[in-house]
Amino acid sequence: MTDEGAGRELTQTSDATAETVGSLGPWPSLLLVTGYTAALLLLAAATLRSRDA
To answer: pTM of the predicted model, to two decimals?
Structure first.
C-alpha cells in the first residue's frame, strides 16, 4: 500500500456509494443535523422548565 492509499483509507468514512447514502450534500446534511440538535435542545429546555419547581 502506498502512502497515498494509506491516507485515503484513513480519511474514508464509509464504503457506501452516494446512491446508497442519499443525495444530500454536505451543507444540507449539516443543516439537518443542526436543526435536529436545536429541536432537541428546545424540547429538553421546555421539559426542564416544566418539571423544575
So the answer is: 0.55
Grid cell digits, residue 31: 443543516
Contact of 14 with 21, CB cutoff 8 Å: yes
Percent of the chain residues topping a pLDDT of 70: 55
Q: Evaluate whether 12 touches 21 at the Cβ level (below 8 Å).
A: no
Report how far residue 4's alpha carbon sits from residue 41's, in angstroms, rounded to the nearest whole number: 41
- The whole-angstrom separation of Cα 5 and Cα 19 is 23
Sign of CA dihedral 11, 25, 31, 35: negative
Please check the confidence at residue 3 and state whether its pLDDT lies above 90: no
